[in-house]
Specification:
The chain has 425 residues and is of the alpha/beta class. The protein is 45% helix and 15% strand. The chain has a 4-stranded mixed beta sheet, sandwiched between helices. A 4-stranded antiparallel beta sheet has the order 6-9-11-7, with helices on both faces. A 3-stranded antiparallel beta sheet has the order 10-8-12, with no helix packed on it.
């Protein structure tokens, strides 16, 4: 076989054989297919797409390029969760201990943030001493003993995805459904869970900008999971505005703690409880929303989170400390009305420039910086009322304030919002 023939075949919109996909991906990982040819292949897929069978072959070939985690030593149905990315997404921090508080084991590998999207691992590293790098034996042992662990993704897991994603990132081929689906599902399948919840975000701050594409991606990933015997459900969720109140690593830890204490905003608390109910159902445990919510109110979920933090070397005193940002600036409304728009992408990029996110993978993070919103879309605000607080370790110029305010749209009519748009099983 030759890479050029496979590229040409896909360029012309033809279906690749299983053998051709396997040869290309394994050759790329072995260094026999160069970056420039794999870039051409990714662009051909971007324009011509892939059939369901091709995506399945691509996914399973990628799974075979690295180690696969065996969770069979852990009793019960193991559940996992993945989000396709967003702004202010601290869901994993609350959802994992909430599900584990019902006795359902959660063994989760998470990633870091880049650009306007935040990473769960970065947020956990804002807790002094928290260890995100654990070997497989310690990871499994902790889930056996406590019922939960969240660690960084192993470099040995799905080597093809690591190489291919880095290439896609610099060749404008990230946002194509076959490559997103195979990237996500190869890692979830290799991570070894029995059941998977997929949070497919849609809107201004997500990879999928419209509901049609989000549905196609969700259905593709659900079918991939089911094809290899993993119980899989996708939830399409709104990412047109930041999720919850906080953007920024330490600030999102503090919001997660509020929610775990039953003191969070009603909308995000209810959203996470609904996700937990679905995840528990994937483990064959049927519980009411009221019962799920009770585990936030009675401290059961918080106790699980604290146990995980302590088991992974985190300092429980540091866990609860406020942000140590040097400057905290209050942003107040210039007019009375209803919040009509808080564009997630714009505020994610704004927080990144404060140091809360990375422009490139080598950037250092400032864990203390970010934004906390006091008002969200659909809520009434009066002129002079507090809209948000900006946390920074640099002086905040008037230009930055002006930029922040121009992205807060206020109208005369309230706007209805719903975090969960659709469930695809």
């Amino acid at each position: 076989m030759r890479a050029v023939d496979i590229i040409q075949k896909k360029r012309d919109g033809l279906e690749l054989s299983s053998a051709e996909i396997k040869w290309l991906i394994e050759g790329y990982v072995a260094g026999q297919v160069p970056d420039y040819q794999m870039s051409a292949f990714a662009m051909a897929v971007y324009f011509k797409g892939m059939t369901t069978r091709e995506i399945s072959d691509l996914t399973m070939t990628m799974v075979g390029t690295g180690e696969q985690i065996d969770l069979s030593e852990i009793a019960g149905i193991k559940v996992d969760k993945h989000s396709t990315g967003g702004v202010g997404d601290k869901v994993t921090l609350i959802l994992v201990p909430l599900v584990a508080s019902f006795g359902v084991p959660v063994a989760k590998m998470s990633g870091r943030g880049l650009g306007h999207t935040g990473g769960t691992i970065d947020k956990l590293e804002s807790i002094k001493g928290f260890e995100v790098e654990r070997n497989q034996e310690d990871f499994i042992k902790q889930v056996q003993e406590l019922g939960l662990s969240v660690i960084g993704q192993s470099d040995q897991l799905v080597k093809a995805d690591k190489l291919l994603y880095a290439l896609r990132d610099v060749t404008a081929t990230v946002d194509t459904i076959p490559l997103i689906a195979s990237s996500v599902m190869s890692k979830k399948i290799a991570a070894g869970a029995d059941s998977i919840l997929l949070d497919v975000t849609v809107g201004e701050g997500a990879f999928m900008k419209n509901l049609t594409d989000a549905r196609v991606l969700a259905r593709t990933m659900v079918d991939l999971g089911k094809a290899v015997g993993r119980k899989t459900v996708a939830v399409i969720t709104d990412m047109s505005q930041p999720l919850g109140r906080a953007i920024g690593n330490r600030l999102e830890i503090l919001e997660a703690l509020e929610i775990l204490q039953g003191k969070g905003r009603e909308d995000i608390s209810d959203f996470i409880c609904r996700l937990a109910q679905i995840m528990l159902g994937l483990a064959d445990l049927e519980v009411s929303l009221e019962e799920v919510h009770s585990h936030l109110l009675d401290g059961s979920a918080l106790k699980k989170f604290e146990e995980m933090v302590e088991a992974q070397g985190g300092d429980l005193q540091d866990l609860y400390r406020p942000s140590q940002a040097e400057f905290v600036l209050e942003i107040k409304a210039d007019e009375t009305g209803y919040i009509a728009d808080l564009p997630a992408m714009e505020f994610g990029l704004f927080a990144m420039r404060l140091g809360a996110g990375r422009a490139v993978k080598s950037d250092d993070l400032d864990f203390e910086t970010g934004i906390v919103f006091e008002k969200k879309v659909g809520e009434k605000v009066a002129a002079g009322e507090l809209l948000a607080k900006i946390y920074a370790n640099q002086k905040i110029s008037q230009e930055l304030v002006t930029e922040f305010k121009k992205n807060v749209k206020i109208s005369n009519e309230p706007k209805k919002v719903s975090e969960i748009i659709e469930v695809i099983a």
